[in-house]
Amino acid sequence: MSTSKAKTPQTMKPATAARKLGILLSAAPAEFQEGVVSRDELNALQADPPAWLSDLRREGPHPRQVAAAKLRVSASGLARAGITGPLTTAEIEALKVERPEWLEREQATFAQVRQEEQRLKEERAKEQRAPEPRAKEPRGKEQRANGPRGKGQRGNGQRGNGQRGNGQRGNGQRGKGQRARA
């Protein structure tokens, strides 16, 4: 008789849930920061976000990954520019208006990297779609010119190189795995 165990809900740390929601954990309410979040709760937050979550997504502060995406640069590009902390939506919009030299340079670099990634992706897809050309195999007698099993091989279990198939050598020396006779 087997009894089935009740499934425990899958839970995650608040930091993981905040990352999946695209918000900064330190800006979330205390009850969100202190508890664990189940998969069902996360799905509910994504489907019908409460006011605090909508405000955070709209106004920030945003994590570096989100800020980088809004600026169309990489997170490394933000770090190279000296921006290591979170940015609000107002700060992101101000950077877009100011268009500092580093932002234009990082956007160009990011665009080039994306283009190269896309090119490589298309190249890999093309290679997978194209079948490899098959060499024509000879037919009839030409195929068996060197015997039934290929060059130098015998079909009777012998090695064809002067050695016996039992590991002993033909010259009286011990073969692999053979004991000395007394």
Please characterize this protein's 3D structure.
By secondary structure, this protein is mainly alpha-helical. Among the domains are: 11-59, no CATH class; 60-127, no CATH class. It has helices at residues 14-21, 30-34, 39-47, 51-59, 64-71, 75-80, 89-98, 101-129, and strands spanning 11-12, 37-38. It has a two-stranded antiparallel ribbon with strand order 1-2.
Mean pLDDT metric:
82
| DSSP strand count | 2
The geometry reads as extended
Measured as a percent range, the helix fraction is 40-55%
Separation of the first and last Cα atoms:
62 Å
The largest β sheet comes out as: 2 strands, antiparallel
Q: Count helical runs.
A: 8
Low-confidence stretches: none
**Strand content bin:** under 5%
Task: List the helices and strands in order.
Answer: EHHEHHHHHH
Pfam family, one: DUF5997
Name some characteristics of this structure:
182 residues, mainly alpha, two-stranded antiparallel ribbon, 8 helices, 2 strands, extended
Topology overview:
Blueprint: E1 11-12, H1 14-21, H2 30-34, E2 37-38, H3 39-47, H4 51-59, H5 64-71, H6 75-80, H7 89-98, H8 101-129
Antiparallel strand pairs: 1-2
Summarize the structure.
The chain has 182 residues and is mostly helical. It has helices spanning 14-21, 30-34, 39-47, 51-59, 64-71, 75-80, 89-98, 101-129, and strands at residues 11-12, 37-38. Among the domains are: 11-59, no CATH class; 60-127, no CATH class.
